[in-house]
Every structure is written in structure tokens, then in C-alpha cells.
Amino acid sequence: MENPEIVTIPETLLVGMQTNMSLTENKTFNLFSAFMPKRKTIKNAINTDVFEICIYKDGYFKNFNPNNTFTKWATLAVKNFENIPENMETFNIESGLYAKFNYKGLPQEIGGFMGYILGTWLPNSAYILDHRPHFNVLGDSYKSNAPASEEAIFIPIKPKTS
């Protein structure tokens, strides 16, 4: 597995839809089925890249349980929060440090990749997990349910203190 690129993400304004879910009660398909047909109604989108945001409660990964709930968003980055479409909400990613990984493969196989990031790479790196949103960017190389599909995974980090 590759080492990530360490990047500082600027503040990013997003518009989209959200749902609460757990890994055992995964509602990703429903969320994206509702969002994708309506994304063209977002008039001030910066590009067509879809941001899949996950907001976990503090300690979610320390006391991991697939029944624990989190919030997932399907969004587009926007220039401003003007003209928000009906049934959509705004979300703000604050500027911060992220480890950016490139994932290639089927969505249902991403669990093993995430296990590597959180269980092997992170503990052996100079960083610890920061309590901020995690997100994936589904760009032009993302193809739903295709083995050659690619997405960028952003894990919020901060330097370990000695």
C-alpha cells in the first residue's frame, strides 16, 4: 500500500443531503439514489466531483462497533451558499490537515483499505486521527460498482505530540 499525500484542505463549502446510519444499517445507496438525480439543481457548484462526507462521534474508532451510528453526506462543493435547492442543506469543511489516499476498487471492498489506514498506517505514522469530518472525493475516475473505479480518501490528522 502506498503512503498518503499529506495535504492542507482549504475551507470548503458544500451543498447536499445527509442521513444517519451505521455500517450494519448502511443507507449509502438510498442517500446517493436521492442525491445524484438532484445534484444538477445545485447552480453554483465548483465542479462535478461528489464529496462523500462522514461525521463520526468522538471515540467512534477507539470503541469501534459496526452498530455505532454516524452521519453521511452526499454533496457538491459550491462557490457560496446562495440558491440552495429544496430538500438540500449546507455543510462546511473547515481548513485542516488530511492524509490523502487514492483508492482503486469496488466500494464494498473499501473496508479492508480503511482497516489498513486506521490500523497500520496511522499508528506507524507521525500523526494521530483528528476529530473532524472524513471524506471521499468521487471524481471523473469514479465509476459506480466498477473494479477500476477510483476515489480519493481524506482522513483528518494532526501531528503526534511528544
UniProtKB/TrEMBL annotation:
InterPro entries membership: AraC_E-bd, Cass2, Reg_factor_effector_dom_sf, YobU-like_regulator
Pfam families documented for this protein: Cass2
Domain (AraC effector-binding) ranges: 2-158
Coiled coil: none
Protein's UniProt name: GyrI-like domain-containing protein
